[in-house]
Structure of GTPase Der:
Amino acid sequence: MKPTLVLVGRPNVGKSTLFNRLTRSRDALVADIPGLTRDRHYGHGRVGDKPYLVMDTGGLEPVVKDGIMHAMALQSLQAIDEADKVLFIVDGRQGVTAQDKIIAEQLRRKDQKILLIVNKTEGMSAAVVTAEFYELGLGEPYAVSALHGDHVNELAALALAEFPEFEEAQNEHRYPKIAIVGRPNVGKSTLINALLGEERVIAFDQPGTTRDSIYIDFEQNNKHYTLIDTAGLRRRGKVKETVEKFSAIKTLQAVEDANVVVLVLDARSEISEQDAHIADFILQSGRALVVAVNKWDGLDGYQREVIKRELSRKLSFLGFAKLHYISALEGTGLQKLVLSVDQTYVAAMTDLSTPRLTRALHTAVEKHAPPRGGMSRPKLRYAHQGGSNPPLIVIHGSMLDHVPETYRRYLENFFREAFDLAGTPLRIEFKVGHNPYAHKKAAPLTEMEARRAHNRRRRNRKKYG
């Protein structure tokens, strides 16, 4: 197993900045705002031949007893229990604080391996800036600057020095990525926790609880997945805070990074234009889609019928997607949801042979030929697969630039039904064969050829008048 390094500390000491340095990524949101990170956030890093896991956590507020900050603290304490080594981060420019002392006391009770990191020490003498932190009783402090990258590589090597080398499997962590998206407060984090069977992410009855996109590996029925919990997407006009703008960007990036997207809708509120906008972005991104209508429990027959009519009217363009009515809080409907995710993933990643596609193409043309374009009809000769996730079918022929959009949609639906590609968008690309001799001038006729052509024209005039 890879060693797991867990970053803990009070808010705004630079944990997420150090996380990005250790993972050589920009996966964690970073801003000069306390409490930006709220959930546990995993990443992968490597020092030489030693790979490792890094876990970013929310700010540890030991004196807060309720609210989101208390939930963040519980998440951090749970992460500490999972750690092989804890990296306790403090702020070198602020010095030792009362919170630092309380956190240090809690860490000592945990009986974990701890490395004390003094961050934000750029331009300062390491010996001077670390001196006062010895009073925390956690051993020798180590000075770094996560923002500038000073001594970060040496820190990673020091943290991993006691762990043996780990042989990483070549295909490790290449599991289907499932992004959970939707408007704020529709139950995305509750759904994640229900699937995992634990309080893995913070779920609060208020919009905007999740700010970052959290990648979580889990296993169910001997199958591995990577779930992506995302921030809720509001209408553009209502997104004003800088943090929320970055959260929205992270969500859109998560959609494009995913193999399958689960669009979560709230059955207890009407289907809004924003739901349609999110669905359209998923469709334009070409991602396989499963729709989950959450909070279905407790609705009477009339309310359920109203929601079904709204779905049919406002999201009619998602007819290819599988639809499930669930309750993340009660855990109902989740098994069928996961089964649809599996089937949709298989459809999105399917490999289709050229002979099968060409036979299906000819069958589609026999059932319904393309309309004429001018004096002649487009000819669709053969097809092959040009990509997956979403499946791309490339059709070759002549006059294909005259194929109307309605016929393209007919072919998409025909191929989807013929190859059981439910749940995934399908893209058709037409390629016209060009005449290689079109740009060449004809050679002049010989005297004999010219005489024969003249006689042929005379005979045609006598015959046809």
